[in-house]
Amino acid sequence: MIENPNEVVTKAILRLVQVPGLDRPAALITLDNGFDHKKPNSFGPGGLTSLDEAITAATEADPAFIALTGKPYIFCVGADITGMPLISSREQAVALGEMGHRVFARLRSSTIPTFAFINGAAMGGGLEVALHCHYRTVSTGAAALALPEVAIGLIPGWGGSQILPNLIGIVNAATVILQNPLTQKQLRPKQAKEMGVADALFEAADFLEDSLAWAAGVVRGDVTVERPEIERKDWDGVLEFVKAMLDEKLHGAVPAANKAVELLALAKTASFEDGTAAETEALADLILGDESRASLYSFDLVQRRAKRPVGVPDKSLARKVTKVGIIGAGLMASQLALLFLRRLQVPVVLTDLDQERVDKGVGYVHAEIEKLVAKKRMDEGTAAKLRLLVSGSVDKAVFADADFVIEAVFENLDLKKQIWAEFEKIVKPEAILATNTSSLSITEMAAGLEHPERVVGFHFFNPVAVLPLLEIIKGEKTDDATLSTAFEVGKQLRKSSVLVKDAPAFVVNRLLTRVTSEIFQAVDAGTPLDVVNVAMDPLGLPMRPIALLQLVGPAVAYHVGETLHAAFPDRYVDSPNLKRIVDAKLPVMVDKEINPEVVALLEVGDKPLTADEVRQKALDGLAEEIRIMLDEGVVAEAQDIDLCMILGAGYPFHLGGVTPYLDRSGTAEKITGKRFLADGVANVRS
Question: What residue range is the signal peptide (predicted)?
Fold first, then answer.
């Protein structure tokens, strides 16, 4: 077994506890790495060894039952992924799989009843060790319950793929193992109980006491746990449907997903020993695969770099925000109002050209609050408070005491300059002036103001409530106090903020538009829309290009393209066919198919490309643009490019965002002469 010098060992701490109604004590094993909930429990070689020793000691004590639980808020979040990059051979990967199986199997095969008291987050190997126990309780306060391995290029490798479908059925198991990871969802405690993952659900306040009493009832025979017989006749049909959906969505780009389907199929008839042996082999293959290495790199970006953005001024410079002003009351502005209101819980005021627009914006916020209450995601007391905090007025004087003012109006530089010139005379001198522009220059927007140093870009992604990225753009004169305040506000909004230099279209829109530009060059040359639409399929991107164009809106895409064409005419084309689509105001997609009326509009050349050629042109364009952006200092490092593409554009973990794939495929060196990441940074093999 490979040793990991960086492992934070999760110790399995055994104590014998007296439980009323039992003549022998229970053996309670608590998983605890010695840190608070911000550093969750995980299983590396050291942690597995400690658990193995605790099970031995517990068994020797001959208790009434053995129970496993975690430290406050955390049960266990799975394998220690810091050790994954150290695995350099298949033998090491196999050894890791076998060790987990051997230790966990002791709970499954124990002649003494075993229980898992899932008091907090249980993910991956943490949920799998609970599944090995004979019985499970779960706390209403358990924040995250999941088998997320497929999302990071792996499979549940310590029994999950074999135990779960035989516990809760193939449909539910496919949801937990495949659908949830690929859509970034987790089980709630109530769902876990309803599915049968847990046998009992208890309130968080008295969870351990209630779980011990319930376990004692099971041991005495007072409590009977009934589990339904698993239906097997539709097993194969369900998996055929799942495989078809995966092929449609991922186009074979995520080997872990297909491997998980194979393991779920095996679970129908295979012995547990054969099934877990297949898990070990699959895990060993995937750990050393490119997609897993890139996925772990992505995971590290999202979990670490996103929480510690590079280049941010000291937070002591940040100003306190006690009131927010929003210029505009359209859909984007109203979404921003709701977000600021919920996260900051300070007065938020909207303004627009007339009272009707203002009332509509405030009405949107009220309606969304009502929806949250109806879904029990907000209590009525909080809702009443937020209703009182949001207001709207056509009188701009209400902005006089705002600390943070953000505009979300039409993307027109002259309009935005006019707005700031007007509002600068109204707001107090230290108020932050933020713009939600998607492509326009912050520096130009601030030009002519008395205090250009307080203007900052604050670019959200739509839908605002869902996408976690916030591009914070520093203009030439933006000062440190403004930047520090912007990042502190971003943190309060629970967004992952990246510092970006003031450059056309910033990061995400610049790169997505470069892809669109390459694709429409191919269309203009004669490549059919249905060919360009499937060209990127082998990458497993979240949306095909034409579907993405429909989502963004052809007019918006064309506007950003115009901005970039003006800045970089040699790399961004002004496509006449995209202009025709915009002018026609027709939907690009109808019933998930390309609109034939749009196809009829196109005027194309006689040099069509194949799908492979279109894809390579798009990748070449991405590589060239990223190298230029890094040379220009648009962001600090390639890792920030990847973080932006993952969080703002939904680029998949298995690509590592984008630069690891460009390195791995050889595109980076072919186009730019060098790789984006140092060898080993993304743990991808050339």
Answer: none
Q: Which amino acid is at 456?
A: V
**Numbers of helices and strands, H then E, in the chain:** 28, 19
Q: Strands across the sheet with 404-407, in order?
A: 390-392, 348-351, 324-327, 404-407, 432-435, 455-459, 469-474, 496-501
Could you say which of 502, 533, 551 is where a domain stops? 502
Residues 112 and 146 in one domain: yes
Among the candidates 502, 537, 563, a domain finishes at 502
Cα–Cα distance measured from residue 68 to residue 133, given in angstroms and rounded to the nearest whole number: 9
**How many whole angstroms separate alpha carbon 413 and alpha carbon 160?**
55
Same domain, 65 and 134: yes
Q: Domain holding 167: CATH number? A: 3.90.226.10
Cβ atoms of 297 and 682 within 8 Å: the answer is yes
Q: In terms of domains, do 121 and 252 share one?
A: yes
Spatial neighbors of 147 by CB under 8 A, at least 6 apart, are 123, 124, 127, 128, 156, 160, 164, 176, 177, 180, 181
> What's the CATH number where 596 sits?
1.10.1040.50
Residue 461 and residue 561 share a domain: no
Do 258 and 171 lie in one domain? The reply is yes
Measured distance CA(463)–CA(301) in Å, rounded: 22
- CB contact at 8 A, 594 and 537: no
**Average confidence (pLDDT) per 10 residues, the chain, 686 residues:** 78 97 96 94 95 98 98 95 84 93 97 98 97 98 95 94 97 96 93 97 97 97 93 95 91 91 96 95 91 90 91 94 96 96 97 95 97 93 96 95 95 94 94 95 95 96 90 97 97 96 96 96 95 94 91 91 94 94 94 93 94 97 98 96 95 93 96 87 44
Residue closest to 149 by CA, chosen among 242, 251, 81: 81
Do 652 and 635 meet the contact criterion of CB atoms below 8 Å apart? no
Domain that holds residue 431: 317-502
The total number of residues shown for the chain amounts to: 686
- Which has the closest alpha carbon to 123: 54, 187, 169? 187
H or E segment and range at residue 27: strand 26-32
In a domain, 312, yes or no: no
